[in-house]
Ribosomal silencing factor RsfS (Serpens gallinarum), 119 residues
Amino acid sequence: MQNEQLVQLAVAALEDMKAQDVTVIDVRGKTSVTDFMVIASGSSSRHVKSLADNVLEKVKEQGVRPIGCEGMEGGEWVLLDLGDVVVHTMQTATREFYDLERLWRGAEQSRAQHGTDAE
């Protein structure tokens, strides 16, 4: 399965479960860990876990074997490592605190301002 297809599958699975503020960030060239990050908010720990569970179910149906899953026991922030796609489901307050969107987009803006191509 292509990375873009996996992103679309994850986003659809999140939207099926009423995820809030689903965001996709292309991090190719910014990190060697993954190519895409999908970030979504849930309204409670139960909702955050349900979002992650649905993504896991849908990707497994397509033959994708997740590399890892962390945070299911707490439900404040669940990270699903699908290899070239990492899915973060978070409670709104946790998402605002860590602000991953600003972190990853800020790296891009910083490189542009300084004219560097850091990886």
User: Anything to note?
Assistant: The two ends are 25 Å apart (CA to CA). Residues 45-61 form the longest helix (17 residues).
